[in-house]
């Protein structure tokens, strides 16, 4: 009975780890880089943040499932069948979460768009107030009302565009891609260890049966 549970856990862990590796590779090489082809920085930023949030949730779920499955398989295996590769693979699975700390030390932090956007908004508001003050000195109240209406409309559109800087969005996307590439490498090594270990289990079982 224990052997059957261990086999199921190995199967679930291997499939989950394979999905984790494939998903990370697809995100880092195809899906996320294509966002840089969008026509505006604001559209690229919104799409990236939405996709990155959803992808991170599912990748964390796959990491937990695969790592836990191999760890349970190692724990439930009989004493003579506690193969070290199950523990190693589990460590590789959970090790993919450490890439969030490893990537900044290798490539540096991405350019933060939040503080820069706040600074640009402050500069824009200050410039708009200065412009309004100058117009009050040159125009009457009636003309000022019309100018203020037109100005708010144009300023609103200008602020929307200024909130997103193309270079900052590109920096965040490239950092995410590098992080997922490292994650792909770690999970890929774990997947390779799992495949070789399961193949070794089959060979050992065949040898014992024939003997």
Q: How would you describe this structure to a colleague?
A:
The protein is an all-alpha fold and 211 residues long. Helix content is 87%, strand content 0%. It has helices spanning 2-34, 41-76, 84-95, 99-107, 113-138, 141-162, 166-210. α4 packs across α7 (166-210).
Terminal CA distance reads 23 Å
Low-confidence stretches: 153-162, 206-211
Determine Rg (CA atoms, Å).
Answer: 27 Å
Mean pLDDT: 79
Task: State the main characteristics.
211 residues, 7 helices, rod-shaped, disordered C terminus, 0% strand
Give a concise summary.
With 211 residues, this protein is mainly α. It is built from seven helices and no strands.
Give the topology, please.
Blueprint: H1 2-34, H2 41-76, H3 84-95, H4 99-107, H5 113-138, H6 141-162, H7 166-210
Helix pairs in contact: 1-2, 1-7, 2-3, 2-7, 3-7, 4-7, 5-6
């Amino acid at each position: 009975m224990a052997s059957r549970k261990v086999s199921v856990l190995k199967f679930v862990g291997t499939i989950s780890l394979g999905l984790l590796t494939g998903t990370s590779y697809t995100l880092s090489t195809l899906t996320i880089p294509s966002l840089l082809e969008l026509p505006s920085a604001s559209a690229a930023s919104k799409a990236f943040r939405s996709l990155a949030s959803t992808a991170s949730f599912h990748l964390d779920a796959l990491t937990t499932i695969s790592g836990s499955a191999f760890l349970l398989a190692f724990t439930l295996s009989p004493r003579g069948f506690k193969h070290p590769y199950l523990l190693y693979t589990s460590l590789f699975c959970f090790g993919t979460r450490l890439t969030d700390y490893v990537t900044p030390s290798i490539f540096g932090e991405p350019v933060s768009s939040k503080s820069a956007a706040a600074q640009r908004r402050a500069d824009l508001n200050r410039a708009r107030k200065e412009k309004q003050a100058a117009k009050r000195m040159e125009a009457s109240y009636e003309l000022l009302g019309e100018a203020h209406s037109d100005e708010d409309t144009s300023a609103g559109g200008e602020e929307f565009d200024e909130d997103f800087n193309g270079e900052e969005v590109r920096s965040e996307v490239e950092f995410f891609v590098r992080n997922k590439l490292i994650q792909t490498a770690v999970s890929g090594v774990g997947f390779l260890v799992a495949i070789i270990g399961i193949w070794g289990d089959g060979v050992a079982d065949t040898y014992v049966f024939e003997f």
